[in-house]
Amino acid sequence: MQTLINPHILALTPYQSARKIGGNGTIWLNANEYPLSPNELLANLNLDNLNRYPEPQPQSVISAYANYAGVNNNQILITRGGDEGIELIIRAFCENNDSVLYCPPTYGMYKVSSDTLNINTKTVPLTAEFQLNLKEIEKNLDKVKVIFVCSPNNPTGNLLNKDDIIQLLNMTKNKAVVVVDEAYIDFCLDKSLANELTNFDHLIIIRTLSKAFALASIRCGFILANDWIIQSLQKIIAPYPIPTPCALIAESALSNTGIQIMQDKVAITLNNKSWLENELSKLQIVQKIYPSCANFILVEFKDGQKVFETLWEQGIIARNQHTALNLTNCIRISIGTDKENLALINALKNI
Fold it and tell me: What is the 3-state secondary structure (H, E, C) of 223-251?
């Protein structure tokens, strides 16, 4: 029966999610999640209508997120996490011999989604400083319809220069859409490009509640774009993408109280990150700590493979980046609780 499957699908390499390769750890620092569940958001949820299909695009959630992001209601589409947004954009703008361009090292789903849809990909690596190589991008724009950039970037943690993104937007007018993945922007919200939607008709922004809002499990993401793009994406999104319980939790998270809870979590995360960076800097096995504007840090070790395997054996699961472009001996470490971060440092001291 395997011969009935599309040969293209059989040849695909799937995205290696943190849960797929997580092992049997007790301390999880590999998926850039918030380490604790926001249980305070779960009280008083009205779940009386679970026999009915959910609202296709819950207007209360759209209004709340529009208010948070500083955009209009008609500039938002709710998606099943940021990953569905990536796939929807490729489906809407690419066909036949079109291409998607992205800039490694970066988030792996840009390639996986393109490959799944049988769309060609082009890569223009980031510079040694993990910034856009605009000259090379300009040379590779032929047949490119979608460009993905991630800021703060995953797995490097740095922001892309805003002036470079603006230059990229000017370079691609009437040629391609530019998608800025802002999954981690809530940790540096003043650096968002959301206010540029009024200036660039072809700008798309991807957001999520999975990171700073500590709601990875409900799979709630957002596409921010101008109305013509949102209307086009609404034609191809699944009829009922957001389950009612997820929408209710999202609405609670986007209330004034919920946003304050999130901001408190961001402050805790950033303080814990500063402590962890300081402690890592004292270790002889650490070669370099890359600057990060997100809830994780990228660390280059003298022997990254040994460090990763030793932590793994002790149940401390980080994300090995050894095979990523230009990231030899690098490990991405999500910011955990005080106790988790201390356990990590103690384990590293014994290597």
Answer: EEECHHHHHHHHCCCCCCCCCHHHHHHHH
